[in-house]
Amino acid sequence: MGLLVVGSLGLDDVSTPFHKIENALGGAATYISMAASYFTAPIYLVGVVGEDFPKEYIDLLEEKNIDLEGLQVIAGGKTFRWAGKYHYDLNVRDTLLTELGVFENFDPVVPGKYQQASFICLGNIDPVLQMKVLNQMIAPKCVVCDTMNYWIEGQKDELLKLLKRVNILIINDSETRLLADEPNLIKAAKHILDLGPEILIIKKGEHGALLISKDTIFSAPAYPLESIYDPTGAGDTFAGGFIGYLHKTQDLSIDNIKRAVIYGSTMASFCVEHFSTKGLEDIGNLRVNDRYREFLNLSKCDEL
Amino acid sequence: MGLLVVGSLGLDDVSTPFHKIENALGGAATYISMAASYFTAPIYLVGVVGEDFPKEYIDLLEEKNIDLEGLQVIAGGKTFRWAGKYHYDLNVRDTLLTELGVFENFDPVVPGKYQQASFICLGNIDPVLQMKVLNQMIAPKCVVCDTMNYWIEGQKDELLKLLKRVNILIINDSETRLLADEPNLIKAAKHILDLGPEILIIKKGEHGALLISKDTIFSAPAYPLESIYDPTGAGDTFAGGFIGYLHKTQDLSIDNIKRAVIYGSTMASFCVEHFSTKGLEDIGNLRVNDRYREFLNLSKCDEL
């Protein structure tokens, strides 16, 4: 049974101090699916694009064993667009443009053959849409969800309803503090565990990630990259590597979920080394596994 | 042979959303010495206070096996004072007052019996004073140094001269970027290794610490504290636990230096749980070792 992914597909204009690209392949579902494709197949993609979505991007997704039966292509519609500019310190970015396009009226339909999928990744979109997808699924077993400040502030009630049905929530540190209304990250995390998810994973960018459950705290390092070209999609890529590995192994033990965090971090480190999805297009399993082991070594310390 | 520590001793007024204290024991050398005292003895303290420095603080330091022959007490002089206010998010603080007092004309004199010390911790003071201390030492083997934005911006030439004689530099992430004039932390760290230190340790507060040498990168987690009362002195306490453990073990292998980073983090986690030096006054070795092991477990992940 495939891994179900829902989220945005988009066309991105991104500029950094190093480079500038236009009409690049983007969107949460794109990054999630491509990262997950290194671990498992098929990926069942639920999303929407306009008629302007390039054929080459469709081909690229299909090459990665991403099933597009659930991708709506709206005749005459315009694909979701995002434009952003990164500063010299790549941790700081301005959003220059967000055009919803066909996303404005998106009504996600999960094809029959997808509905049995038990591993589900709800990419960062309106929690109302995330819930609509979840309601079409017959046997959810591992529901991973991402969200953002915009929905926490603007759709809190809908998000809280959704969280009761989420197993693993993946958000960043400022979103964690915002959702819990608590500045201490650990207190905030414990509060969020009371809202539904059994596990919270906090993405901290260049500071790594934290996994928090009722009984466990696991701190994963970030890969010490000297060349970061484009941070766009890193968080989605993390989620994709994470759930891709879980789906491959079908093992939801806490030790395996820790390994999934490291695989998520591994994929994110590849993502930011190139523009758009370029860093995810042709990695090879050997490089994935090598970097995974480097990650493990980063925090290794003999107790004596 | 004792461990030599130089730095400020002060009286602090600190307010946080939870509490407010005045005339509390503070200063870099105070925190360094008290943290190191859990690992080794004696500590040779070089510093200066005024006549207003309370007798009870002298007693406290002496109880911790801190040798005060190198502490100048200036008759009629006023002790260094600092006042700060932490916000609801304890990562943000305002400095309300800095009065140098007797520090303004401090001329550090290293007593004869201290001069053979081979482990030296240069707490965060003017690099000119740090150099004066170093010049009085006969056989430095492990020179650990802390500094801050103020000296990086105002005394760069003197600092660069000093760094050529430093083995291990301990600074935070923004200081690392500032000193190297480079936003990428890893690139910045490598640049700093070219300035003299063999090892750079980057303190990242709630995100842990990074150790970087020519061949090694080690990522240490932060302890997931739910109750942080007063972050004052955490960085100095880290340095004290770090060099205290190194001095105790006399082992400068990279594996042992990694353990020292975890011990430094351990001591810093105790420091911030209480006001001023309270968290360091009576810990007990069992609690130190328990928390050290908890730290190691935080980032443990079975490779499979």
Keywords:
UDP-N-acetylmuramoyl-L-alanine:D-glutamate ligase; alpha/beta; 10-stranded mixed β-sheet; 304 residues; homodimer; 14 strands; 4-stranded mixed β-sheet; 10 helices
What does this structure look like?
Two copies of one chain form a homodimer. In chain A, 35% of the residues lie in helices and 24% in strands. Chain A is built from ten helices and 14 strands. In chain A, the strands form two sheets. In chain A, strands 1, 4, 5, 6, 9, 10, 11, 12, 13 and 14 form a ten-stranded mixed beta sheet that branches. In chain A, α1 runs parallel beside α8 (234-249) and α8 (234-249) crosses α9. The N and C termini of chain A lie far apart (45 Å). Chains A and B meet through α7, β14, α9 and α10 of A and α7, β14, α9 and α10 of B.
* Helix content percent band of chain A: 25-40%
Classified by CATH, the class of chain A is: Alpha Beta
Distance between the termini of chain A: 45 Å
Radius of gyration of chain A over alpha carbons?
18 Å
Number of domains of chain A: 1
- In quaternary terms, these chains amount to homodimer
**CATH homologous superfamily placement of chain A:** Ribokinase
CATH T-level topology of chain A: UDP-N-acetylmuramoyl-L-alanine:D-glutamate ligase
Order of helices and strands of chain A: EEEHEHEEEEEHEHHEHHEEEHHH
Assigned CATH architecture of chain A: 3-Layer(aba) Sandwich
State mean pLDDT of chain A (0 to 100 scale). 96
**Envelope shape of chain A:** globular
Q: How much of the residues of chain A is beta strand, in percent?
A: 15-25%
Q: What profile does the largest beta sheet of chain A have?
A: 10 strands, mixed
Q: What structural class should be given to the helix and strand makeup of chain A?
A: alpha/beta
Treating each run of at least 4 consecutive H or I residues as one helix, how many helices of chain A?
A: 10
Q: Most extensive interface, residues per chain?
A: A-B, 41 and 41 residues
pLDDT under 50 segments of chain A (min length 5)?
A: none
How many β strands of chain A by DSSP? 14
